[in-house]
Write a structure and sequence with these properties.
By secondary structure, the chain is an alpha+beta fold. The chain has a domain of about 210 residues: Archaeosine Trna-guanine Transglycosylase, Chain: A, domain 4 (Roll). It contains 10 helices and 7 strands. Strands 1, 2, 3, 4, 5, 6 and 7 form a 7-stranded mixed sheet that branches. α2 packs antiparallel against α7. It is globular, with a radius of gyration of 19 Å.
Length: about 300
């Protein structure tokens, strides 16, 4: 069986047709083959096909512009100057899928000389999910997303799999497995063992540096209303020991590994003086990191024990 077949058969856990909900524009950039690294604060629990779903939050024009400029710059490092970006960034839609072939730590990817420099520059989070063979749906269709990696409903899968078409990105990359017979051999620690040396530093131009800074800002800018909602949620969780008993929650909050504050946001941790924080502040930050993202309305409804509207 080829690497692209079988969907969730190569996945860990109880995943059959694993799906990940991401914010735009990151979701479409991944399905269009422009984005090759999906950054997370937790390692990839699956290998093989991963369906990509766009969350409900409409991306701001400034965010789209910043991320497109980021990819123009990192592709330019490898001599690629023509990139066809998506014309639209639809939300609340199943967009397509990619093949997750491995997962390494950021520092490992940065030192992996076997991959293009532009790919090494994409790694900006703790864990880098290595993605190949993007495919998009000819007609993205509406569905609701969930936090973390979850199983795509069978009826949705059966409809979606017939509408997939391959996508050729600007510069497709093939990530070589340390052991071709073991699909999970490309894992955190494997690159540092195989290639213990450190790759030469990438010389960054002023425009590249600015693009990276812009991408950082885009990834960490959140709506104040959403921030307040999360802060209130954390406070309620700390003061109410019964907060786990949430009626009508579809998200299984406490069964998923720690993820970014919002799904698919590719949050790049900003430099902070953690030593100057109080213990309560550190606890709040830790709690917030354990609240994987979901569309705001669904998340708020789950927290309040209500059915999403």
């Amino acid at each position: 069986m080829s690497r692209g077949e079988g969907g969730g058969r190569r996945s860990h856990g109880n995943y059959t047709n694993p799906c990940l909900t991401m914010h735009q524009p990151w979701a479409s950039l991944l399905v269009y083959g422009i984005k090759r690294i999906e950054g997370r604060s937790w390692p990839a629990p699956v290998r093989g096909r991963l369906w990509i779903h766009a969350a409900s939050k409409v991306p701001e024009e400034a965010t789209i512009k910043a991320m497109e400029e980021f990819y123009r710059e990192i592709y330019a490092v490898n001599g690629i100057t023509e990139i066809k970006f998506p014309e639209h960034y639809p939300v609340s839609r199943l967009l397509g899928c990619v093949e997750v072939v491995g997962c390494v730590r950021c520092e490992e990817l940065a030192s992996w000389e076997a991959v293009p420099v532009g790919v090494r520059l994409e790694g900006q989070t703790d864990f880098c999910w290595l993605c190949e063979q993007p495919k998009k749906l000819l007609v993205p269709f509406e569905m609701r997303g969930y936090q973390g990696v979850y199983n795509l409903e069978k009826k949705i899968y059966e409809a979606a799999v017939r509408g997939l078409v391959p996508v050729k990105g600007p510069m497709p990359v093939k990530f070589l497995l340390p052991n071709p017979r073991d699909p999970f051999s490309l894992k955190p620690g494997s690159i540092s063992v195989l290639f213990p040396g450190k790759a030469s530093e990438v010389e960054k131009s002023s425009s590249l540096t600015a693009a990276i800074a812009g991408a950082r800002a885009a990834a960490t800018q959140f709506n104040k209303k959403d921030q307040d909602l999360l802060a209130n949620t954390v406070q309620n969780n700390n003061s109410n020991s019964k907060s786990d008993e949430m009626n009508g929650k579809p998200l299984e909050e406490h069964q998923k590994p720690k993820s970014n504050l919002y799904e698919g946001s590719n949050v790049i941790p900003s430099v902070s003086n953690e030593g100057e924080e109080s213990s309560s502040q550190r606890q709040t930050h830790a709690d917030m990191k354990q609240l994987p993202g979901a569309p705001a309305k669904i998340f708020a409804a789950a927290v309040r024990g209500l059915k999403p509207s």
